[in-house]
Specification:
alpha+beta; five-stranded antiparallel β-sheet; three-stranded antiparallel β-sheet; 8 strands; 30% strand
């Protein structure tokens, strides 16, 4: 049994990037699907596909690399809020990743979104991870 599925998701993506894989397969959940959609919308991954092969299903993520330098679009992806210590941020204390160059993915009452979207909607939430 996996105690922190989001950390497992991020670790699978991080390991696939370090191994220069083009596609990574991850067991699906609703929260993982929403995080994948945010990563795609912000241009950190090139494509994704939800497959319902089992009851749980899988997410296939096509990672994005620079065609010339072969460097991934995701330089760093790290978990912030852990099951043992949840990190919440109000709208006035929302984090800025690399002074606005990266994104913080939040779980809010309006769904999963980036820190910039949460600022415009004037809501806070649980800070899931940082991506840059």
């Amino acid at each position: 049994m996996n105690t922190d599925p989001i950390a497992d998701y991020l670790t699978r993506v991080r390991n696939a990037i370090k191994a220069n894989h083009r596609v990574v397969e991850i067991p699906a959940s609703n929260l993982k699907r929403e995080i994948t959609k945010v990563l795609f919308d912000k241009g950190y991954i090139s494509n994704y596909k939800f497959e319902q092969t089992t009851v749980q299903g899988t997410i296939k993520i096509a990672l994005k690399y620079n065609s010339i330098t072969k460097i991934s679009a995701i330089r760093s992806i790290s978990r912030v809020s852990k099951p043992g210590l949840r990190k919440y941020a109000g709208v006035e204390k929302l984090p800025r990743v690399l002074n606005g160059l990266g994104i913080a993915i939040l779980s809010t009452s309006k769904g999963v979104m980036t820190d910039k979207e949460a600022r415009t909607l004037n809501i806070g939430g649980e800070v899931l991870c940082y991506v840059y």
